[in-house]
Design brief:
2 copies of one chain form a homodimer. Chain A is α/β, with parallel strands linked by helices. Helix content of chain A is about 50%, strand content about 15%.
């Protein structure tokens, strides 16, 4: 077994992602895992499940002496969390996170990082529709991408240690510019979730009798949408609010395209509709070819 | 084993649905299965796979002497198919279909049904993203709904035989008014597919570099969308064109809701966003409770 990469890992936020990191990292990747969560109930559950060596409700105590700190709370909590822990970060420690929006993390956390602490934001592209410490599992990150968005001038050694951390979790690693990350993720993840949440609301607004049948006869298309829509509300509220510009841009592009499709349906433009459907199939085939499907 | 319900079943169109019916019905539910498809290649494959007792390129010959005929082609082909087979339908035969749009089937097929032939349109809510005779499987309809939309005055005995046909396929059966069917299906199936096709096109329009990364980093949200979007183009083109009014109404409702969500994102209305996400979760929970998820 490889030498642990870190002596002490502090995980702030023990939801699906944080608890999966704890399960996968404890012992082999980090010699010691300290868990912190704003919820005592979550920490009690983490202790019951034996996911960490120590549980601390106070994030400042949790990061004390840690050589790797990973923020796993919803991104909207990052500014106040960074403020709370910054004075307590050990010199030479690495501060990272798993947030789905990277410009906001640079903006909210970056200015608070003390000299001598390495700031290496990251985003593992993994998740399920379940939430909380019971939902995590050690293999969540296997075969998935972890995107790193270090600010200019970050110590390459620290970036490499975070990259190695994710490789040992089974992930593929790529370094990316934060604004580019936010645009790509707005398209492949944030917009699909916004559409899924929205269509559930649209269905919910139908008259009572119809709604019952919407549920009763839910065909496969709608079932997939509701699966996406079951994801954690706090996390997604924060993602939408913290990737506003890219998300609104992608939604505007999508809305134009949906209106063009509506026009084709209204006027019976079969060729246009076929072309759009074929493009969907093409993207699907590409996904299968690059083994992401 | 129960006595076969029909002596001779003619299936017109041997794609995913038609070939699944052939696999499930042959022998036990229908003593003899005759397959017809406009494509000789499909019929050759049906023969190779041993899915039917006889293959006929001419649908008029296929329906000859059949006591149950099921149209399994894309709904846009129903009018010309009905014209071709109508004079050849046996007295007392039942004419049914599996089309996803029921008002159009009543409109296109209904007037052509000869006296003495029973017309019982049906729609099994089942499918996958794969197409063609190789994609079918005998258990496709198990535990899924089959919706029957017989026109007023249809012989109750004929409706019951079609209901029993689908029950023997493992389906749950419900009788529904065609316009109501089309609205419910527009919401739970047609609109989700339109959105899925559209978002794939929107992604495809991104700049080349970004598109590569859209594919490379496709997160789970987008993967689910592309799975939906891989469905059969001819079938979906016809569904959109033949459920125009209901689909455009649901799309208009959805677009209003998406614009309201966009406004909430732009103005940072966290409460609104949380409410919409919670409604998505609520619908998801309802789906799980009624065991459709």
């Amino acid at each position: 077994m490889a030498e642990p990469l870190f002596r002490r890992l502090a995980i702030i936020g023990l939801g699906l992602i944080g608890s999966s990191i704890a399960r996968a990292a404890r012992g082999s990747i980090a010699a010691e895992v300290v868990a912190s969560d704003r919820s005592q109930a979550v920490l009690d559950r983490v202790t019951e499940l034996g996911l960490a060596d120590r549980a601390e409700i106070d994030p400042a105590r949790a990061v004390d002496g840690a050589d790797l700190v990973i923020l796993c709370a919803p991104v909207g909590a990052f500014a106040s969390l960074a403020e709370a822990i910054a004075p307590h970060l050990a010199p030479g420690a690495i501060l990272s996170d798993v947030g789905s929006t990277k410009r906001s993390v640079l903006r909210d956390v970056g200015p608070l990082v003390p000299d001598g602490v390495h700031f290496v934001p990251a985003h593992p592209l993994a998740g399920t529709e379940y939430s909380g410490p019971d939902a995590g599992f050690a293999t969540l990150f296997e075969g998935r991408w972890a995107l790193l968005t270090p600010p200019p001038g970050t110590d390459p050694g620290a970036v490499e240690r975070v990259a190695e951390f994710w490789r040992r979790m089974g992930s593929m690693v790529s370094v990316m510019e934060p604004a580019h990350h936010d645009r790509v993720l707005a398209m492949v993840s944030h917009l699909p979730h916004l559409l899924a949440f929205t269509i559930c609301g649209t269905a919910d607004d139908l008259a009572d009798e119809t709604r019952q049948q919407v549920l009763q006869f839910a065909a496969s298309g709608f079932r997939d949408f509701t699966r996406i829509a079951a994801s954690d509300p706090d996390m997604w509220r924060d993602v939408f609010l913290n990737n506003r510009d890219a998300l609104l841009e992608m939604l505007a592009r999508f809305t134009e395209d949906a209106q063009a499709m509506a026009r084709a349906v209204r006027w019976g433009d079969a060729g246009y509709i076929e072309d759009k459907i074929e493009r969907g199939r093409k993207i699907r085939r590409s996904l299968i070819e690059i083994k992401q499907a």
